[in-house]
Amino acid sequence: MLDSISGPIVLVAHSMGGTVITNAAAGKTNVKALVYIAAFVPDVGETQGELITKFPGSEVEPVSVPVPYTKADGTTGIDLYLSKDGQAAFAADISTADFRVLQATQRPFDADSFTFPTTAAAWRTIPTWGLVAGRDKAIPPACERWMYSRANARKIVEVPRSSHVVMISHPKIVADLIVDAAKATS
Q1: Is 53 exposed, middle or buried (0-12, 13-18, 19+ CB in 10 A)?
Q2: How many C-beta atoms lie closer than 10 Å to residue 7's C-beta?
Q3: pTM for the whole thing?
């Protein structure tokens, strides 16, 4: 996908998407900035499982509902969905009605995503920006700060009262950080 886009790219990721852009952008000269929004920023060989337990505070595992599925190779995988009781751990600063829509329409994530080691670290060569959700109970804020600092983020914005879904509860702050990254690398 990145090869099909002409011109400069600013990749933005939330949560587990941080691992995706960390790997996908490696070696892509058209990617000019990485913006991590309450996201994982793994290094080569690290797993999300290691990172989420590096600092205390994640409350998302107990409110994750495992649902088995059949993988293409015939083995069983486990998709994780956020339970109806997950608002406090995931989205405490949005309305219950908004949380219900989020919870009902979410795309699950594969439990294996916590065990696969990262194979590249694009943040080592591409400028990064980070946003810390100060009341994040999915990825602990201390972990977010540590990962962004390790990645030498050009700018780290903290939203002290935000849950994990900062892009829903504080969209302007998120948009401003993305614009900052785009302007700084254009």
Answers
A1: middle
A2: 6
A3: 0.95
Read off the pLDDT of residues 130-143 as tens digits, 9 standing for 90 and up. 999 999 999 999 99
Number of neighbours of residue 14 by Cβ within 10 angstroms: 21
Split into its structural domains, the chain has a count of 1
Predicted confidence (pLDDT) per residue in 102-114, tens digit: 999 998 889 999 9
- The CATH code of the domain that includes 23 is 3.40.50.1820
- Give per-residue pLDDT as tens, 18-34: 999 999 999 999 999 99
> Can you tell me the mean pLDDT for 147-151?
98
Q: What is the largest distance, in Å, between two alpha-carbon atoms of the chain?
A: 47
Q: Tokens 């069983």 label which residue? A: 76
For residue 163, what are the domain limits? 2-184
**Vertex 160 angle, CA 185 and 110, to 5°:** 75
Residue 103 identity: Q
Q: Which two tokens stand for residue 63?
A: 């409110």
